[in-house]
Amino acid sequence: MDSDKRRCEVYSFKDGCKALWNVEINEDSAEIHPVWTCHKCRKTLSRFQVSQKSGKRYQTDKKPFEWLPHSPLNCICSKEDLEKPHSSGPGRPSKASGGSETDTASETEQHYSEEYNFHILNEIRRLYSGLPAQSALQLASELGDRHGFVVIDVTNMRNSMATLDSSVLTQLLEIAVSLTKESVKTDASSVTADGRDLEELMNIEPEEWFKERAPIIQGIVHQFSDSKTPTIAKVVAAEHLYSLINRNLMSPFSFAKNVVSYSLTPSKRLIDLNGKMHPGGGYSTMKSWLANMALDLLPFPNGDALVAFDNVQIVQKRWTVRVDNKAKVSILTSVCHSEVEPNGNLQRKADLSPR
After folding, report:
1. Which of 271, 293, 315 is the last residue of a domain?
2. What are the percentages of helix, strand and coil residues in the chain, rounded to 5?
3. Residue 46 domain-assigned (yes or no)
C-alpha cells in the first residue's frame, strides 16, 4: 500500500463499513478490493459520520458490493461513476468560487480516476510478467489499434512493419533520416577530395570507401540495389546522397572522373558539365588542383643532366564577329631533366658553352 494518504481514502470510512455492513477494511486484499469508495457509498458513509458526531442513529438499505478475484481485462469497477461529474441536484447550479465544495469534489474525482488507472496499470504489469512473447505482442497490437500508436517487433521488424500504411512508413523513414542527419553531415566533410594528390586518388578502394560510410547511407543504397549492382554504382549513389547535404562536396570518385576526362580532352565545357551532374567540382576546381600539384619545384641535379622541353602553342584567330565567338589561345611549356652522371662536370666547362 502506498504511503500517500490520498490512496488510502477507504480507510477513513472503516468504522462506518464495520457499523453498517460488518465489513473489515483491514482484511481487504489490494489485488481484489479497490482502495477507494464509489460516489454513492461515499455519500452514505459521510452521512453515517455526521450522524455519529450529532449522536443520532443512522441506517441504510444499501448493500455492499461483493468483490471477487478478477483481472484488469474483466474488471467490474464502475469507471464511468469515477470519471463522470456529479450533478449538484435540480435547480440553478451554485456559483463557483475558490475552494468551493464543487472544486473539491472535482479534484477528488480526478484523484479517484488517477488512482483507478494506477491500480489497473499495476495489475497489468503483474500479469504481463508471466505473459508469453506472442501473447504480449498481440495485446500490444490491439492496444495500438485502439489508441493509435505503432507497435514494431524488433525481432521481426519486416513482418510487423509490412502491415503499416505507406504514409506511416514514409514518416518513419523521414524521422530516421532526420535523427541521423548530423552524423551524415560529419561524415560528408571527411569524404572530400580537396587537397588530395593524384597518388591518393589512385589508391582509394571503392569497396573499402563504401564500408566506411554512415550506416543510414549504406542501408538506403543497399535496399535500392541487389547482388548484381557493381560497387562503383553504389559508391556513386552514396556520393550523390552526400552532395544533397553538402552542396560544395568534391567527392573523390567523381573528381577522379573529371581528372580522366580532362586528360583526354581539356574541355572547359565538359568539366563544367560533369561538375553540374556529379559532385566532382568544375573547371576552376580542376585548374586549381593542377596548379597546386606544380608548386613543389624539384632541385636541379649537381652533376651532368639531360634537359628537354616542349613548347605547345595554340593561337587561333577568328575573323567573324559574333556572340561567344572566342578564339583558343594557350601556351603550354613542359620541361624535364634527367641526371646522366652524378659526379660529372661537363656543364662547368667553358669550352662547351654555346657560342
Report:
1. 293
2. 55, 5, 40
3. yes
**SS3 (DSSP) at 12:** helix
Q: Are residues 117 and 15 in the same domain?
A: yes
Q: Which residues touch 1 (CB under 8 Å, ≥6 apart)?
A: 7, 8, 30, 35
Parent domain of 336: 304-352
Q: Which residues of 73-97 are buried (b: 16+ CB within 10 A; e: fewer)?
A: eeeebeeeebeeeeeeeeeeeeeee
pTM (two decimals): 0.51
Alpha helices in 39-191 (DSSP H): 39-54, 79-83, 101-128, 133-147, 157-162, 166-179, 181-188
Query: 112-150, pLDDT tens digit by residue?
Result: 456 556 667 777 777 667 778 888 888 888 888 888 888
Residues 64 and 126 in one domain: yes
Q: Torsion angle of alpha carbons 264, 243, 225, 153, nearest 10°?
A: 170
Length of the chain: 355
Instruction: State the number of CA atoms in the 13 A half-sphere of 252 facing the CB.
Output: 22
Q: Are residues 193 and 123 in the same domain?
A: no
Rg (CA), the chain: 43
- Distance between CA atoms of residues 246 and 240, nearest Å: 10
Q: Residue 20: inside a domain, yes or no? A: yes
Do 203 and 241 have their domain in common?
yes
Q: Are residues 228 and 251 in the same domain?
A: yes
Q: Is 35 helix (H, G, I), strand (E, B) or coil?
A: coil
- For residue 169, the 8-state DSSP code is H
CA-based max dimension of the chain: 145
Calpha distance 196→281 (Å, rounded): 14
DSSP string, 226-279: -TTS-HHHHHHHHHHHHHHH-TT---HHHHHHHHHHHHH---HHHHHHHHHHSS
Per-residue pLDDT tens digits for 304-347: 888 888 887 777 777 777 777 777 777 778 788 788 888 888 87
